[in-house]
From TrEMBL:
Residues binding Zn(2+), per UniProt: H144, H148, E220
UniProt family annotation: Belongs to the peptidase M48B family.
Domain Peptidase M48 residues, every copy: 78-295
Descriptive protein name: Protease HtpX homolog
A GO term from the CC aspect: plasma membrane
UniProt membrane topology term: Multi-pass membrane protein
Gene Ontology BP terms: proteolysis
Cofactor: Zn(2+)
Organism of origin: Streptomyces abyssalis
Primary localization class, coarse: membrane
Length: 304
């Protein structure tokens, strides 16, 4: 993770944050599993198998599940010539392997990247994005998404988000096991299990949520920077950001609510109105992203 692949600029700040996040997520993982084993020592083989199985499933299939859930459909150059053409130009410019190219039939203007590595990565744009943006704006968005793959932060976010899923699932398993044990033997300590496991799981979930949100906000700024420097047109990316964010208010609330669970993957978050979710957004404020792109534009202007 030390450097980005191809000509995307490396980001030491992103690399260090990914390392720290994975280390802290690992500690939380040990605390959660250790608490489960301590409270349910007789069932430790089942806990190990369940945790291992969930981790493998999350790591290997989460990108496909996310792509399927967001309606991504792989398209050929004949089906989407403009989208493939933009990806081809960017991959040649960045000197990176071409990912799978997909399109989602959604009026929500957005794009996302998935994949554990560059070999199995996918870049997807919605029909709403392609319809609303100019070609140079589309390239700015796709350059942003390709930088996520080049910096490998897509894979890190996939692994990091696993802990929150695990905490929720194992809490239900522990509660079910505790209730069953309580019915058979009141002296089994099921009451303690029912108290301790949910509390530990809730704490782990909150901490993992905050860690992934902090990483997610920084990685979006990093992708904006890397994408703008690669194309040399930060103004096009800024224009795309402004258009996409402005158009969200015109999208039906029903469509935005369907998209909200996948905000961490998106180029710009989809919010169905002013909700508490905006306080814990996976993306930095629009103003901060535009300010960074403005500074990059000034720097590039001085270099010419």
């Amino acid at each position: 993770m030390a450097a980005a692949r191809g000509r995307y600029v490396a980001d030491r700040g992103l690399t260090s944050r990914m390392v720290v996040t994975m280390f802290l997520i690992g500690l939380l993982y040990v605390v959660l599993v250790g608490s489960l084993i301590a409270a349910m020592s007789n069932a430790w083989p089942l806990i190990v198998i369940a945790v291992g199985g969930l981790f493998v499933a999350q790591f290997w299939f989460s990108d496909r599940i996310a792509a399927f859930s967001m309606g991504a459909r792989e398209v050929t150059p004949e089906q989407a010539p403009e989208l493939h053409g933009a990806v081809d130009r960017l991959c040649a410019l960045a000197d990176v392997p071409k990912p799978k190219v997909a399109m989602a039939d959604s009026d929500v203007p957005n794009a996302f990247a998935t994949g554990r590595s560059q070999r199995n990565s996918m870049v997807c744009a919605t029909t709403g994005l392609m319809r609303r943006l100019e070609p140079e704006e589309v390239e700015g968005v796709l350059s942003h998404e390709l930088s996520h793959v080049a910096h490998r932060d897509v894979a890190v976010m996939t692994i990091a988000s696993f802990l929150g899923v695990l905490a929720g699932v194992l809490t239900r398993v522990a509660l079910w096991g505790g209730l069953s044990g309580a019915g058979r033997n009141d002296q089994s300590g099921a009451g303690i299990i029912l108290l301790v496991i949910p509390l530990v799981s809730i704490l782990v979930y909150i901490l993992s949520f905050l860690l992934t949100r902090l990483l997610s906000r920084y990685r979006e700024l990093s992708a904006d920077r890397a994408g703008a420097l690669l194309t040399g047109r930060p103004s096009a990316l800024a224009s795309a950001l402004t258009k996409v964010t402005g158009q969200m208010a015109r999208i039906p609330t029903r469509d935005l609510r369907k998209a909200e669970p996948f905000n961490a993957f998106f180029f710009a978050p989809a919010f169905s109105g002013e909700t508490v979710a905006t306080l814990f957004s996976s993306h930095p404020p629009l103003e901060r992203r535009l300010e960074q792109l403005s500074r990059i534009s000034q720097q590039l202007g001085r270099q010419q």
